[in-house]
């Protein structure tokens, strides 16, 4: 199946909202830098600079025992260097009013803190207030990207499995049956079943053309069940590797003149139904145009069965 | 025609969360009866309609319609806008009438996707 540009923009749109979702789902410990190197407040700025250079740090928590008492960043070191005070202890240049985040908080808490403050990094504390990591905006971007990648791979896997359903299962005749109960007069949900059927077919690897033809046929049939039946009816879709069979059936009232019902523009729909945009008298005509084979069997007072078939060529199967 | 151009020609309001992007619109149709839409519309089209309910969006999704324009200043309910956002179908509202809106787009070179429906049901 070739992806049209619109599908790509769908995915882009999805990934935007998904990353926002992920900011709530992901916990800080999943994205933070662990094994954080804590500094003693009494070491000199000179030795902190050496550690930063060696370890490529841009900032580190300052602790006494297990307790966080400050944070020192590369900016603090630059300030000390400019003032010629590299021999001072780091406690004289560190930021003392440290804003920290909790290890099991959602990532969005860190994002909010970054937006509120001007800090580039935040120490992460566990439930005993012990520093266990450090988080930067870069860590969050990386974490989100990794999570999106994981999502994407899972989605690919599901898609792959669905489209190979018929190859993976061996039998003399494999088919997948979808059933939908359609309630009379349910205009609010009208079209939901058809929408789901179209999506399912695309998932199973049908071409956009086939999915569209099935979608239109089954949508017209669904609206007919909603508009014209006594008690609603059922949509039954059977998917096989070589064909898709769609059936709409109900138990009344039946069609008085099937030939007339097939005439373009003929409709028995009420004005009320027409105001909702239906009853153009094109439903059955549209169905016939979309499917390869259509049979309409109706008995007055007993009900109607509409059979629709689309044959899939070898290209579709592969 | 670019989506952005369509919106500005019709002096339309975008009702969904879409960016006014550069998606391409291939043709157009003006109709209030959904079966008429399904009978002639082709993918990547804009549908201009005075009908304002969730069924319009359902129809658009089934028929791969690209954009829906509600004419005569009609505004759909929240449910309709929600479905349109889910299905990634931009909704545009314009104060112009169906006749005028169609005329503007047709004059600007957007082809009509409406076909005659006859007894001959072969494709």
Could you please describe the fold and organization of this structure?
The complex is a heterodimer of chains A (318) and B (123). In chain A, strand 4 (121-125) and strand 5 form a beta hairpin. Chain A is built from 13 helices and 10 strands. Chain A has 2 domains: 15-141, CBS-domain (Roll); 171-317, Histidine kinase-like ATPase, C-terminal domain (Heat Shock Protein 90, 2-Layer Sandwich), CATH 3.30.565. Chain A has helices spanning 5-25, 28-31, 45-55, 74-82, 107-116, 137-163, 165-168, 192-203, 208-228, 258-261, 271-275, 283-290, 314-317; strands at residues 59-64, 67-73, 101-102, 121-125, 131-136, 176-182, 233-239, 243-250, 293-299, 303-311. Helices cover 44% and strands 20% of the residues of chain A. With 318 residues, chain A is α+β, with helices and mostly antiparallel strands. The relative contact order of chain A is 0.09. In chain B, helix 3 (54-62) packs parallel to helix 4 (78-86). Helices cover 34% and strands 15% of the residues of chain B. By secondary structure, chain B is an alpha/beta fold. In chain B, helix 2 links the parallel strand 2 and strand 3. Chain B has one domain (3-107): 3-Layer(aba) Sandwich (Udp-n-acetylmuramoylalanyl-d-glutamate--2,6- Diaminopimelate Ligase, Chain: A, domain 1). Chain B has helices at 3-9, 34-40, 54-62, 78-86, 98-107, and strands at residues 13-14, 27-30, 45-49, 67-70, 91-93. Chain A binds chain B through residues 5-6, 9-10, 13, 187-188, 190-192, 194-195, 198, 208, 212, 215-216, 219-220, 223, 263-265, 274, 276-283, 285-286, 288-289, and chain B through 21, 23-24, 32-36, 38-39, 43-44, 49, 51, 53-56, 58-59, 61-64, 66, 79, 87-88, 117-119, 121-123.
